[in-house]
Amino acid sequence: VFDKAEGSTTAGNSSQLTDGAAAVLLMSREEAVKRKLPIWGVWRSYAVEGVPPDIMGVGPVYAIPSALQKAKIGAKDVDIFEINEAFASQAYYCIRTLKLEEGKVNPNGGAIALGHPLGCTGARMVVTLLNEMRREGKRWGVVSMCVGTGMGAAAVLE
Question: What is the dihedral angle through the alpha carbons of 93, 98, 100, 105, rounded to the nearest 10 degrees?
Fold first, then answer.
C-alpha cells in the first residue's frame, strides 16, 4: 500500500484525531413503526474480513465485496461509498483496487477532511452516508473502514 522509498505519511495526508459523538438506532421495521420513529435506511448486509496485520488499512478491499455479495448487488449498483480514510494512501489503494468511481466515494470528504473520532467513526460514517443518500435521493450505500490489526468491515444500506 505504501511505498517507503517514494512517499511518506504525514499529518497532511492522515486523518486527524478529533472529538465526536454520534448515535445510530438499529431496530426492526416493526419496532420503528411501533415507536413512530422515522426510517432512514435499511441495513441489508455486513461483512468483516481480515488481512495480515502488517498491511493494516486494506481490509475494505476484502470486506466490501463480501458485503455486496451478501446483499446480492454489485459495486456498480452502489450510489455512494463512505470509506474511512485513515491515510490518503490507504484510501486511494482501496478505491483503485476495487475500481470504484472516485465521484461516488466520500462525496462530502472523508476522515482527512472531517476527522476520525475514535470510537465514533462507524456511527459518524453511517450518519453521513444516510444523510447524503436522503439528500441526493439515492438507493444504495456502502460504509466501510479498516480496523487496527488488519481487519476490515463493510455494510450495505438501502
Answer: -60
Question: Can you give the C-alpha Rg of the chain in angstroms?
Answer: 16
| Phi and psi torsions of 17, nearest 5° | -80, 130
The pTM of this model reads 0.90
Report angle CA 112, 88, 18 to the nearest 5 degrees.
Answer: 25
Residue at grid coordinates 489503494: 93
Q: What is the pLDDT of residues 59-115, one digit of tens each?
A: 999 999 999 999 999 999 999 999 998 888 889 999 999 999 999 999 999 888 888
The whole-angstrom separation of Cα 4 and Cα 145 is: 23
Q: What is the CA angle 100-102-106, rounded to 5? A: 105
User: In this structure, are strands 151-157 and 43-50 parallel, antiparallel, or unpaired?
Assistant: antiparallel
